[in-house]
Amino acid sequence: MPKVSVVITAYNAMAYLPQTMESVLWQSFTDFEVVLVNNGSTDNIVEWVAQLKDPRIKLISQENRGIPRGWNRGIAHAQGEYITFLDADDLWDPTKLEKQVKILDENPEVGLVYNWVILIDEYSQNMGGLIRRHSIVKCDAEGDVRKSLLEQDIIGCGSSAMVRRACFEEVGLFDPSFTIAAD
User: Fold this and answer.
1) pTM of the shown model
2) In degrees rounded to 5, what are phi and psi of residue 144?
3) Bridge-partner residues for 137, per DSSP?
4) By the number of CB atoms within 10 A of the CB, which of 44, 58, 74, 102 ranks highest?
């Protein structure tokens, strides 16, 4: 079993996906699997994945059912203790997984960690600095936690969070009725 499952949903993202996948495969922490959900793409994603030789990559294809359902499908196929998400057009720093795993390993009471985000253009050039601060959110919240999460300002980039699988088991999956800003 891998320690971490990286869930990527993709819809016609081949212009970005090779570089995105590279940013995952070059991580300093290597005990992970990639669950790539082909969310109804009409580009050559299936053929491209077939050429990749890394056994940690699993492709799951489905008709386009939106991002939340793609994430949920990825979670259903994920085997890791920790689950993290990466948009098909985003990139990670090479130490992202290492740093987040360390925090979760050392803090069993913590359910979710996330990191800074830098906005970049299509040439990977910084467009204006950091947009999020580092925070830790425990998964012991009860009831409707949306207001609490918004007050903590943690929502903004779905590619930064790493979540304990136990949190999904306790509170459920992504709500598919959120078609915009599902993260």
Assistant:
1) 0.82
2) -80, 105
3) 112
4) 74
How many alpha carbons fall within 13 Å on the CB side of residue 124?
Answer: 8
Count of C-beta atoms within a 10 Å radius of residue 1? 8
Per-residue pLDDT of the chain (183 residues; tens, 9 = 90+): 999 999 999 999 999 999 999 999 999 999 999 999 999 999 999 999 999 999 999 999 999 888 878 888 999 999 999 999 998 888 888 999 999 999 999 999 999 887 766 665 666 666 555 444 333 333 444 555 555 555 555 555 666 789 999 998 998 876 677 665 555
CA distances (Å), 179 to each of 63, 70, 75, 97, in order? 16, 12, 18, 27
Distance CA 145, CA 116 (A): 22
- The set of residues, in sequence order, having a beta carbon less than 8 Å from that of 46 and lying 6+ positions away, is 38, 59, 61
**Looking at the 3D structure of the chain, how many domains does it have?**
1
103: number of Cβ within 10 Å: 14
Tell me which residue range forms the domain holding 137. 4-171
Is residue 32 domain-resident? yes
Q: The domain that contains 108 carries what CATH number?
A: 3.90.550.10
3-state secondary structure (DSSP) of residue 124: coil
Is 179 domain-assigned?
no
- 176 within some domain: no
